[in-house]
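Technical annex, item 7. During the second reporting period the consortium partners agreed on a shared format for inverse folding records so that results from different sites could be compared directly. Each record opens with the tokenized structure and is followed by the designed sequence. A conforming record, contributed by the partner at site C, is shown below for reference.
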């Protein structure tokens, strides 16, 4: 393992599709930084800079670069397929001049390794820079797009191209819940950011009584105006925390509405609550799993990852499925007593970020 006096600069290409990939990347970077204080990260992404400023303990340089198309979204639960195809046609195949410029930038930063959280551009840049690449994923985009081929055959060419790029990664790590198991150098438990502040302190700051039940409502980092906010007062003995529901911190009856970016670290909120309700995206599932709290999860009808997440929640967590329509109008309040009655699970397995950090540290040694 590299000593603190011989740290390495590492490049990280992060998919900007939601905040789940950035959350996973931050967890790994923080674990790596804990092993060598001298490390510096060069982060290439369109995820907002503030997300890394708020979450990352390591020093970093931010590069605003489109690293990935992912899926265009109409809402947090519904994708826009025509817009996704337009973005893919513009993005693929990679522009050789762009890849060459990015490779030069990475070499000038004296990086020794490129890590990609499903952003395929990073793999191409690693090849051009003659640097080893590490792919970290629980799915790849070729697998996701294959779920839409029946309704839109134009995905076929993009699937073949991306499959070829992903296969060029020198090292392959899969993080549970894994959507499609493939030959991998490492498979880890779920990867999540760790809390920083105790449950007691967070509740005190939010003025939540010690014995009150608290529920986090989250759509995975996407601001949302929920039609059911006024109905939350029906569960008057429960306190609800709703990130992304207000421009400023605002108390409304038994609800605490927070801005998209607030002074509260999201994993702290998760660990301070007794249950979570929201979209079953990777970071929410991983952080709820780590906290051991029950999950009232809302699946996405056409998104292939959603089925895998639902199966994982049912078998590895305490969870209740909430159809999107029942979530939107607040009828999920009917199952809230059952959700809150489910026990908290004590986790013994390590955070998946730890074995990933060990793996990468050995590569750099």
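Designed sequence (site C submission):
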């Amino acid at each position: 393992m590299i000593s603190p006096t011989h740290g390495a600069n590492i490049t990280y290409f992060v998919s900007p599709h939601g905040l789940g990939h950035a959350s996973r990347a931050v967890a790994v970077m923080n674990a790596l930084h804990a092993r060598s204080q001298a490390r510096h990260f060069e982060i290439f992404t369109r995820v907002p800079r503030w997300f890394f400023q708020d979450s990352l303990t390591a020093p970093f340089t931010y590069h605003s670069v489109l690293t990935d198309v992912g899926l265009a979204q109409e809402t947090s639960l519904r994708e826009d397929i025509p817009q996704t195809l337009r973005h893919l046609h513009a993005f693929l195949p990679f522009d050789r001049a762009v890849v060459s410029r990015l490779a030069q930038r990475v070499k000038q930063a004296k990086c020794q390794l490129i890590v990609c959280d499903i952003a395929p551009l990073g793999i191409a840049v690693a090849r051009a820079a003659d640097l080893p690449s590490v792919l970290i994923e629980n799915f790849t985009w070729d697998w996701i797009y294959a779920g839409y081929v029946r309704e839109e055959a134009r995905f076929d060419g993009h699937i073949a191209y991306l499959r070829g790029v992903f296969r060029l990664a020198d090292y392959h790590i899969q993080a549970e819940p894994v959507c499609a198991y493939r030959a991998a150098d490492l498979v880890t438990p779920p990867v999540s950011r760790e809390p920083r502040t105790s449950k007691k302190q967070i509740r005190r700051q939010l003025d939540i009584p010690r014995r009150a039940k608290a529920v986090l409502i989250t759509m995975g980092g996407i601001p949302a105006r929920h039609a059911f906010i006024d109905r939350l007062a029906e569960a008057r003995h429960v306190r609800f925390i709703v990130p992304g529901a207000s421009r400023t911190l605002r108390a409304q009856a038994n609800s605490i509405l927070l801005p998209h970016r607030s002074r509260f670290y999201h994993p702290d909120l998760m660990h301070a609550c007794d249950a979570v309700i929201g979209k079953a995206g990777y970071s929410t599932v991983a952080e709820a799993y780590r906290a051991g709290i029950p999950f009232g999860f809302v699946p996405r009808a056409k998104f292939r990852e959603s089925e895998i997440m639902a199966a994982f929640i049912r078998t590895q967590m305490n969870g209740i499925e909430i159809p999107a329509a029942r979530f939107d109008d607040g009828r999920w309040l009917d199952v809230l007593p059952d959700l809150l009655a489910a026990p908290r699970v004590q986790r013994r397995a390590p955070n998946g970020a730890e074995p990933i950090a060990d793996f990468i540290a050995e590569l750099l040694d």
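The chain is about 35% helix and 20% strand. The two ends are 5 Å apart (CA to CA). All partners now use this format for quarterly exchanges.
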